[in-house]
Amino acid sequence: MILEKINKPNDIKKLSPIEYNQLADEIRQFLIDKISVTGGHLASNLGVVELTMALHIVFNLPKDKLIWDVGHQSYTHKILTGRKNQFDELRKFGGMSGFPKRNESDYDAFDTGHSSTSISAGLGIAMARDVQHEDYSVVSVIGDGALTGGMAYEALNNASGIKGNFVIILNDNTMSISKNVGGVSNMLSEIRSSDSYYDLKENIGNVLYKLPKGDKVVKLIQKTKSNLKQVILHDSMFESMGIYYLGPVDGHDMDKLIKILTVAKRINGPVLVHVVTQKGRGYKPAERNPSKFHGIGPFDVATGMEINKSDRPTYSQVFSNSICEIAKKDRSVCAITAAMPDGVGLAKFSKWFPDRFFDVGIAEAHAVTFAAGLSAGGLKPVFAVYSSFLQRAYDQILHDVCIQQLHVVFAIDRAGLVGSDGETHQGIFDISFLSSIPNMTIMAPKNDYELKSSLEFALEEFNGPIAIRYPRGEAVVRFREFNAPVEYGKAELMYEESDIAILALGSMVDTAFNVRERLKEQGYNVTLVNARFVKPIDSAMLDKISTTHKLIVTLEENVSSGGFGRAVCQYINDKELHNYVLDISLPDDYIEHGSVDILRRETGIDEDTIVKRITAVYNNIGDNNNEQ
Ligand SMILES: Cc1ncc(C[n+]2csc(CCOP(=O)(O)OP(=O)(O)O)c2C)c(N)n1
Ligand SMILES: CC(=O)[C@@H](O)[C@H](O)COP(=O)(O)O
Ligand SMILES: [Mg+2]
After folding, report:
1. Nearest alpha carbon to residue 534 among 497, 498, 508, 495
2. What ipTM score was computed for the predicted complex, to two decimals?
3. How many angstroms separate the alpha carbon of residue 427 from the centre of ligand 2?
């Protein structure tokens, strides 16, 4: 086993080239074995095994800096940097992250998780190096999917001016999570299929590889480029921007990769190396279905079937069915995704209504303004997006949608704790950032039925910007008996008693129901309200319960700062009411990876902690009252 020789960073440099292919095979087997147990991002990692090995051989880490875009493909990098033994704890609470983390290793030059940041970050590091007259290489690895994100172009525009070495590796596997789409994807496939271009570049690569660092390399590239222009009809966009373009190169051929990266390292200025890889490489089920194996739970290696996968409907599926039903009746309803048709539940819509479906690439900011345009043009757009990725589009929501009060529906999936993706992906800020925007309405349904009725309300009865947030995973299916029709800004009173009133939001209604049962067993009188709307807050309901309850408890899966609880506190305070408000929400912090159950316990929004906190506060109020 050659992998046994890989224990410390840079051990790979001690191997002989004839060992490289076997090491790649062993790394692939290792990844398949480990991820089949823990779950994780398999297909992207299988695709970059040779590329990662070649980067570690050619560059001098950690002096040279390597930045992984999104970072979901950094597992081989983790293996090669002394973290092989941490894979059993991959993405578990307290275990190794699925993304690069500066606090996990000196070899992780920059934290990532969200897409299209690597060129900006790498350029910043390279500029800092030049300003401080230091000497090292900076390499940003970006996928063809991530290259659909706007930030990548802002960074390329900026990068054309850099004087020192800055290497951008474009890992082109023709896939985002789903098939990559759009003009950039078309441009890349045109370059890939240009055979004469490929052959010439390859020969030139062999010549360049033998030259020392410096001007000669650059001059030869320039001469080459003008020769090439006679062979092909167009220049690549990168060359036109002043970024040296090398490739395309076969990303599974170690010899070619090492040569081309060695050339890239010698160039002063920005250079883009176009590497063609196969997503899922080396594991047939993942090669056949890279989307399924992009991010996967535990699976059976022999069949590729997921293990213990529940067949109960998720909120994404409930959304999927609901929007299709509504769109059947209303031809003005259209749907947008930023490169996640499967994740957000729009795959069915895309097949049923291809003319009204838009995959805009990984471009959340654009998606929002595009939705505003669709609305201004007379359609009813629904932008289905993960909560954490919507963070990208704050100004577009405010400036392009809300000021004009355009009818845009935000279907916010993965709202709340998402689990194993960790800090970058927890959907725990959307209430805070959306609440601060005038004209925005925010809803959070308690179960599958209410998600459907909220979407119907948003599309059929409402007119203006409106967000509906719901969590990752299985939909709550109980509480069907509580089905008060959706009315703008109105909460739903589920149980009316006195003393303690729990106002629960969305995913927390389920928890609140159980908490109430336990409090009742202990003899407390507890009202339960499904808040349903975060904004506007149901002031009439608050006025009513404030007269009959000493303690008002708010429950939400969002950070406290700017959250629903704070809005209730503010209301009670502003009206000079005299109730105690206990705001149970997430701390003002980033929450690491781990199962949602563990994270709920760690952050104090699990049933046990909530019951304890409510009884402690309520009993304390009683004491105070007795003393008065
Ligand atoms: C801002 C943002 N939007 C969406 C995602 C979800 N996402 C993660 S990886 C990915 C596809 C990336 O494709 P590519 O860069 O080509 O990498 P590959 O998986 O093909 O290796 C998407 C859409 C994200 N991480 N960040
Ligand atoms: C890396 C990334 O951003 C996505 O692949 C994300 O991990 C998907 O999350 P879900 O598993 O919730 O769809
Ligand atoms: Mg890709």
Report:
1. 508
2. 0.99
3. 12
Name which of 364, 366, 403 is nearest 384 in CA terms: 364
Mean pLDDT score across all residues of the chain: 94
Instruction: Confirm or deny that 72 is annotated as ligand binding.
Output: yes
Reported as a pLDDT band with limits 50, 70 and 90, residue 204 is low
Does pLDDT of 234 surpass 50? no
Q: In the prediction, which pLDDT does 341 show?
A: 98
Which two tokens mark 106? Answer: 């000196």
Q: Is 356 a catalytic residue?
A: no
Residue 223 has what pLDDT?
61
Is residue 530 within 8 Å of residue 504, measured between CB atoms? yes
Q: Which ligand is nearest to the CA of 176?
A: 1
- Tell me, what's the pLDDT at 208? 60
Q: Are 245 and 274 in contact (CB under 8 A)?
A: yes
Q: Tell which residue, 513, 124, 454, 118, has the closest CA to residue 319.
A: 454
Instruction: For residue 153, say whether it is annotated as part of any ligand binding site.
Output: no
Torsion angle, alpha carbons of 579, 510, 597, 346, to 10: -120
Q: What amino acid occupies position 463?
A: N
| H/E run at residue 411 | strand 409-413
- Count of CB atoms situated within 10 Å of the CB of 388: 23
d(Cα 167, Cα 139) in Å, to the nearest integer?
Answer: 5
The pLDDT value given to residue 226? 55
Torsion of CA 358, 363, 368, 374, to 10 degrees: -30
Q: At CA 391, angle to CA 609 and CA 395, rounded to 5?
A: 135
- What is the torsional sign of CA 466, 472, 477, 481? negative
What is the DSSP code string of 546-591? Answer: HHHEEEEEEEEEEESTTSHHHHHHHHHHHTT---EEEEEEE-SS--
Cβ atoms of residues 326 and 316 within 8 Å: no
* Cα gap 140→122, rounded to integer Å: 6
Could you confirm whether 225 is annotated as catalytic? no
Tokens linked to 588: 């003002």
At residue 217, the pLDDT reads: 62
Predicted confidence at residue 295, as pLDDT, reads 97
Residue 428 in contact with residue 605, Cβ under 8 Å? no
Beta strands in 513-548 (DSSP E): 526-530, 533-535
- Residue 271: phi, psi to the nearest 5? -135, 135
CB 385 near ligand 2, within 6 Å? no
Residue 235: predicted pLDDT: 63
Instruction: Using the structure block, give the residue that is written with the tokens 């927390």.
Output: 508
pLDDT at 626: 39
pLDDT band at 624 (very low <50, low <70, confident <90, very high): low
pTM over 0.90, yes/no:
yes
Q: Are 244 and 156 in contact (CB under 8 A)?
A: no
480 among known catalytic residues: no
